Fold 4Fe-4S ferredoxin-type domain-containing protein.
Amino acid sequence: MNPIYQISLLTCLIFSIILFAGLLYACIVFYQEKERRAGFRALLLALLLPPIYLITWHYNWEVVALILTADLLITGILFFIPFGNKKNITDDFPQTQIDERDIMFSRNELKENTERYDEYYSKNPDKLKLDNEFRKEPGLTAEKSIFFNELAYKAANASFYTVDQFHQAVDGDINPTKSSISKSELSKFIKDWSRKLGALKVGITELKDYHFYSHKGRGNEYGDPIKSNHSHAIAFTVEMNQEMVAAAPQSSIVMESAQQYLEAGRIAVQLAQFVRSLGFSARAHIDGNYQIVCPLVARDAGLGEIGRMGLLMTPKEGPRVRLGVVTTEFKLDTDKRTKDNAMLDFCLQCKKCAEVCPSKSISFDDPKLVNGIKRWQINSESCFTYWCKAGTDCGRCMACCPYSHPNNLLHNFIRLGIKKSALFRILAVHLDDFFYGRKPKSADLPGWIPKNEKAQK
């Protein structure tokens, strides 16, 4: 037999074994994720696809084996050799600062018949009608909201309450004696300790004007211009539990959001106090008490990209993270950001978050010019209105994002292919739809959380 045919037949045998094992592993992973549809389809493929290669080897179909081997070789080249990464899908550097008074959380705190309320809407009359829509709804963790669950909501509020207690500790006294520690030593220690404290990924960046809000929009400093002498920022992520997120927009999502805001706050307050004890000013930026725009800082610190849904997309957990930031005057070693055009290209093509968004707040369009830069822009008013109706911070986009799948061998292999090849990105979108569905249903609440009381009636 011709050696080429021998190699082709042997390739068919080896590939049939690898393909069967891979699909069987995928089936096990899917069932562990409680994704029965995906598990069944993986099992079906495991029974249908490998036999084609196995039969070819068994019956010595030389020509067929050669064709199949050539197909595998070409496919491998097309799907794993880096090419096709589009550039400039989004712009990097905002031209203006964001005023925190304009964000939905600040507008939600405005009370009718108060000076702040009257002043804001006299300057922004177009926003009054929009904001009156969310004010008609029950509100976050409210009893009459769609997903009301007494225990889950009270648990979330307990976490938010605890975060509020950290607000008085975001800044503080500075040790008058400055440490002589080197920036490389301190930078390494901060990263290692942050991970020890529970941070997932940590990055450091030099601060730019666009990282800061122009004015405070919450608390006693409302309306004050933000001034800071800080030159560097430590940004980190904390992971949101996949099972808690998967049930979004049910009550588990607001529990998990609150818990991870708390974890991010705890770590940030500790880090800031540590840096101040070394003799350098430092401020923690935590839920409800920010001076900076966390996603922009985290992006520039190399932790991910800002995708279609407006959230930071990380390479391994996607948007399924919460962020913490500490700013300081100490000039730390910075991390070089490499723009992940492959991830942005995947966002460009996927659009699943836009498909599943209950309020249709996420655009299907390509990035457009917003305030002078090309980026995706969600409809924050309709998004927040749905939050107030649901009683949770929704999270449906986060739950359905293909990047949010668990961090394991199967999904990391897919992420590697997405990073390498434009063709693989196209295939990955269709594969995710095939296994999980284009509009997957919300998962059940974790078993230890009581079901929605209203749904039981």
